[in-house]
């Protein structure tokens, strides 16, 4: 004779979840009691897939039902466990924790210098770091890393071709410049840059990274749009000089990223060329481009000033020689980049706690 469902539920009430201490019936964990072809089946619903008590609760159900209503009333394979589906893994760059774009309104303000030294400073403190140079009009990252003449190799796995980043100074690097000839007309370079950038993102063999930095061309163009459509960018770092003309363009850049359509969080501003300091007189500061322009703007806009980097001959020279200054222990300019790296890390932690993961931008024709 079939046992009443109510009787089964009554028996199951004796079982408590060890963590919540509530019985599994009143806490709605028993989703189903039914007979199929004369056999008793029960469904158990757990609120998380990694609940450590799934097996023990299954066993408790078996023991309780079978000791109350007789051996073989419930078979182990007749207990169905329901758990919530795991959130989908990010399809693009699944092993990359944070994707950080380095942007600016105006050209020549030091984006690449900041991106390169930030990458090196992050890697020096033990993080796994990648850097994509997305600036097809002036790809300077390979030169700043001293790998201007190198080309990445490729490998094929299961019919898929992967581009292997070049590793230097603890950073994995790829540049759109590797795939576009500088002598090609500027008009061709634009579309080639966007398709090369797509390839570096989707076919780059990045593996597991804590940070993937993307050094963008100046302004707000097609490359920026390609980037936000290809990957969910965790946050943007905006670089500017303190000069008035540069600041006007900073606002344009922020408006593009933070606007409703693109919606990528702005982590903060880096003030580059904050003051000039002669290397032999490190205490002397000359405010060539004006004093604290970015600091004031950041305050006005309510965003963070992530760091201030002085103009120092050594920063320019070390870039030209392929040995970013952040590599030099004890160097005051290197220290400025190390402080910047800490500020960016902190801003990312706060962003990841406060905000939802960024979504890729879907461009519609509507
Ligand atoms: N803090 C600094 N001190 C000294 N020189 C600097 C500093 N920052 C940048 N430079 C120099 O200024 C020049 C322009 O810098 P960089 O190439 O980094 O700018 P960018 O914003 O990436 O330019 P682009 O818009 O062309 O991509 C380079 O020669 C670089 O070495
Ligand atoms: Mg640059």
Walk me through the structure.
- The protein is α/β, with parallel strands linked by helices.
- It has two domains: 5-82, Fe-S cluster assembly (FSCA) (GMP Synthetase, Chain A, domain 3); 96-354, P-loop containing nucleotide triphosphate hydrolases (Rossmann fold, 3-Layer(aba) Sandwich), CATH 3.40.50.300.
- Helices cover 34% and strands 23% of the residues.
- The chain has helices spanning 5-12, 54-69, 111-124, 141-144, 186-203, 222-230, 244-258, 293-301, 313-320, 332-354, and strands at residues 30-36, 39-45, 74-82, 96-103, 129-133, 153-157, 160-164, 166-168, 171-175, 209-215, 235-240, 266-276, 305-311.
- The strands form three sheets. Strands 8-9-5-10-4-11-12-13 form an eight-stranded mixed β-sheet, with helices on both faces. The protein has a three-stranded mixed β-sheet with strand order 1-2-3, covered by helices on one side.
- Helix 2 links the parallel strand 2 (39-45) and strand 3.
- The longest helix has 23 residues, at 332-354.
- The model has no long low-confidence stretch (mean pLDDT 90).
- The site of magnesium ion has 6 residues, from helix 3.
Strand order of the largest sheet: 8-9-5-10-4-11-12-13
Number of strands: 13
CATH architectural designation of the largest domain: 3-Layer(aba) Sandwich
Q: Please write the string of helix (H) and strand (E) elements.
A: HEEHEEHEHEEEEHEHEHEHEHH
Q: What's the CATH topology name of the largest domain?
A: Rossmann fold
What's the CATH H-level homologous superfamily of the largest domain?
P-loop containing nucleotide triphosphate hydrolases
Helix content: 25-40%
In quaternary terms, these chains amount to single chain
Q: Main β-sheet: number of strands, strand sense, barrel status?
A: 8 strands, mixed
How many helix segments?
A: 10
Compute the separation of the termini in Å.
Answer: 64 Å
Class per helix and strand makeup = alpha/beta
Round the Cα radius of gyration to an integer and report it: 28 Å
- Small molecules (ligands, ions, cofactors) in the structure: adenosine-5'-triphosphate, magnesium ion
Query: What is the beta-strand fraction?
Result: 15-25%
């Amino acid at each position: 004779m079939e046992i009443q469902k109510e009787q089964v539920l009554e028996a199951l009430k004796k079982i408590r979840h060890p963590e919540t201490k509530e019985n599994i019936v009143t806490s709605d964990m028993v989703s189903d009691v039914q007979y199929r072809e004369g056999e008793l089946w029960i469904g158990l619903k757990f609120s998380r897939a990694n609940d450590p008590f799934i097996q023990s609760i299954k066993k408790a159900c078996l023991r309780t039902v079978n000791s109350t209503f007789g051996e073989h009333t419930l078979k182990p394979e007749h207990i169905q466990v329901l758990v919530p589906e795991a959130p989908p893994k990010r399809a693009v760059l699944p092993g990359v924790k944070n994707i950080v774009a380095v942007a600016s309104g105006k050209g020549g303000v030091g984006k690449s210098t900041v991106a390169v030294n930030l990458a090196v400073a992050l890697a020096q403190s033990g993080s796994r770091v990648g850097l994509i140079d997305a600036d097809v009009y002036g790809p300077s990252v390979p030169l700043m890393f001293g790998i201007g003449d190198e080309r990445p190799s490729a490998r094929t796995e299961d019919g898929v071709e992967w581009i292997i980043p070049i590793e230097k100074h603890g950073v994995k690097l790829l540049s759109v410049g590797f795939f576009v000839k500088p002598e090609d007309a500027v008009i061709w370079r634009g579309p080639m840059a966007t398709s090369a950038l797509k390839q570096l993102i989707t076919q780059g063999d990045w593996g597991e990274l804590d940070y993937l930095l993307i050094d963008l061309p100046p302004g707000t163009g097609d490359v920026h749009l390609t980037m936000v459509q290809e990957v969910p960018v965790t946050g943007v770092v905006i670089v500017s000089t303190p000069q008035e003309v540069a600041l006007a363009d900073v606002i344009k850049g922020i408006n593009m990223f933070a606007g409703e359509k693109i919606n990528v969080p702005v982590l903060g501003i880096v003030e580059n060329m904050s003051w000039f300091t002669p290397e032999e007189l490190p205490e002397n500061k000359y405010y060539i481009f004006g004093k604290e322009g970015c600091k004031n703007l950041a305050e006005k806009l309510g965003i963070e000033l992530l760091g201030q980097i002085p103009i120092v001959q050594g920063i320019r020279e070390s870039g030209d020689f392929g040995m970013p200054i952040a590599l030099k222990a004890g160097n005051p300019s290197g220290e400025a980049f190390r402080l910047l790296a800490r500020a960016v890390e902190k801003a990312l932690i706060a962003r990841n706690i406060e905000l939802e993961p960024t979504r890729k931008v879907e461009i519609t024709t509507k």
